[in-house]
Structures are given as structure tokens and as C-alpha cells.
Amino acid sequence: MITEADETLLRRAIAIAARAVALGDAPYGSLLAGPDGEVLAEAHNTVRRDDDITAHPELKLARWAARELAPDAAARTTLYTSCQPCGMCEGGILRSGIGRVVYALSTEQLVGLNPGSGAWPAVTTDGPALPEEARAPIRSYYRPA
Q1: What letter would DSSP give residue 15?
Q2: CB-based contact 14:82 (threshold 8 Å)
Q3: What proportion of the chain, given as a percentage, has pLDDT over 90?
Q4: pTM of this prediction?
Q5: DSSP letter string over 78-124?
Q6: Nearest-10 crossing angle of helices 57-68, 87-96
Q7: Active site annotation includes 58
Q8: Burial environment of residue 31 by CB neighbours within 10 A (0 to 12, 13 to 18, 19 or more)
Q9: Which candidate in 58, 68, 90, 133 is catalytic?
Q10: How far from 58 is each of 19, 46, 94, 142, 145, CA to CA, in Å?
């Protein structure tokens, strides 16, 4: 359920996205807030500026949370973002322990505004292959001798 406080912080994420455009960057902004609504960190998309395909604001904040917050503190945070996180960012958010995500625009709505934004070709994958060989380093890491 989206509250009035959520809407206030979501508007701030949208303002970060607008500021990104003014700086010449892509129109995506995010912030991470604690359980009391205090803004802990903010970021905007710098993919082009940094020549880094991972420079999405959601992933930047997930990295920040994983590095700077204890797991129990991260679990009490909310990530507010101007657009629904992509699969890459979802993975980072999950691994970071961030407890909740609130977004303004869905991926479907974004694609409606910018059809190229969702036109990623499917990646061909093959596997599993060599599972017995691959198990050795995993076992040695999790069950050292």
C-alpha cells in the first residue's frame, strides 16, 4: 500500500530524474530512505557519462546499502525510484537486503513512452555443463578442509 509519505519520497525520486536530464544524463532517479523516512542516499542514472552499463541509480543504491548498512538496517529501508527496476537492478536490490521498493512508472509504461527501452534481445544460454567440475570450488569455499 502506497502512503502519503511514500508519495512524497517518490516525488523526490522523480525530481532527481528531472535533475539528471538537466545534467545531460538519462531520466532516472532513486533514493534510499530509512524506516523513519530519512533519506540515506540518492543517485541518478550515469550510464552514458560513466560509460558504464551498470550505472543505474537503483544498482548504485543497492551497492551503497550492501556496503554501508548492516543487514538488519538494510531490511528496514525503502528504495524509491522513478521507474520500475530492471532485472539487473532487481538482482542487486535482492542481494543488498533492501526491504522494499516503491516505483513511479512501470516497465510497461516506460516502454510505451520509449519503445527502445524494452527491446533487449534474448540471450542464448546453454547449460548446465561440467557440473561435477564446477562443484569443486563451490564445495571448497563453503566447506573448507
Answers
A1: H
A2: yes
A3: 90
A4: 0.91
A5: EEEEEE---HHHHHHHHHHT--EEEEEE-HHHHHHH-GGGG-PPPPP
A6: 10
A7: yes
A8: buried
A9: 58
A10: 16, 11, 11, 30, 39
